[in-house]
Amino acid sequence: MIELSHLVKNFGDLVAVNDLSLTVPRGEFFAVLGPNAAGKTTTIKMLTGLIKPTSGCAKIGGYDVQEHPLEARRRLAYVPDFPFLYDKLTPWEFFRFTGQMFQMRDDAIDASARALVQRFSLEPFVRKPIEGLSHGTRQRVAIVAALLHDPEVFVIDEPMVGLDPHHARVVKDVLKERSLKGMTVFLSTHQLSVAEEMADRIGIIHRGRLIAVGTHQELRNLAGHEGPLEQAFLTLTKEEEEGVPAMVENQG
């Protein structure tokens, strides 16, 4: 469902993403890890069509995001780390607006929104202006709106920002359930525990390069030791900084 082919993004002399290639099949829960300024968010913005690659291409469901943007985005949902919402609308108005953007019927919007509102405990907030909601509640509103049209690919950047433990658990459960039913999840996070718990495979980006890809066990093998994912991550990124290239395995 996701194909990234030799993606490069330059900002002047800065190479933010450097020749990144990756395939994520239908139904896989894929997590991306990396230090600050590693290139994770830039990769996501190219994948979702928000910025144009310097070279290479990103495809969703076989459609090039730049050449066939409507077809690609019809299959996609994206929640950034700080999502933009229309503050003067209520969550319910925002859900209807989002559903209409994806050409959903009114009855389908209502049915999907009601189920998700209940799952995410948003009933007390759906008739209140978004501008008065807490950051965590706004995050839940954004996730519900993104899931509304039952996307084939769900891209989310730092999903647990602002969420309390209960609602973080709900997000994890819903995304895992959807991936098991065939939705491809592409998640970027700094929380290694989230990646370790949720992901089928994990990619590590460092200095714009995809330095390692694999299951938890494959990353441990690449790092040369058994132990927590945190230790494998630290070992692989340190080796990259010291000029010892990791073997990028299992790209899909």
Main attributes?
4-stranded antiparallel beta sheet; 38% helix; globular; Rossmann fold; 6-stranded mixed beta sheet; 2 domains; 9 helices; 24% strand
Describe the structure.
With 252 residues, the chain is α/β, with parallel strands linked by helices. It has 2 domains: 1-75 and 153-252, 3-Layer(aba) Sandwich (Rossmann fold); 83-150, no CATH class. It contains 9 helices and 10 strands. The protein has helices at residues 40-47, 69-74, 91-101, 106-119, 135-147, 165-180, 192-198, 216-223, 229-241, and strands spanning 2-11, 14-24, 29-33, 55-60, 63-64, 76-79, 153-157, 184-188, 201-206, 209-214. The strands form 2 sheets. It has a 6-stranded mixed beta sheet with strand order 6-7-8-3-9-10, with helices on both faces. The protein has a 4-stranded antiparallel beta sheet with strand order 2-1-4-5. Strand 7 (153-157), helix 6 (165-180) and strand 8 (184-188) form a beta-alpha-beta unit. The longest helix is centred in the last third of the chain and has 16 residues, at 165-180. It is globular.
Protein topology:
Blueprint: E1 2-11, E2 14-24, E3 29-33, H1 40-47, E4 55-60, E5 63-64, H2 69-74, E6 76-79, H3 91-101, H4 106-119, H5 135-147, E7 153-157, H6 165-180, E8 184-188, H7 192-198, E9 201-206, E10 209-214, H8 216-223, H9 229-241
Parallel strand pairs: 3-8, 3-9, 6-7, 7-8
Antiparallel strand pairs: 1-2, 1-4, 4-5, 9-10
Helix pairs in contact: 3-4, 3-5, 8-9
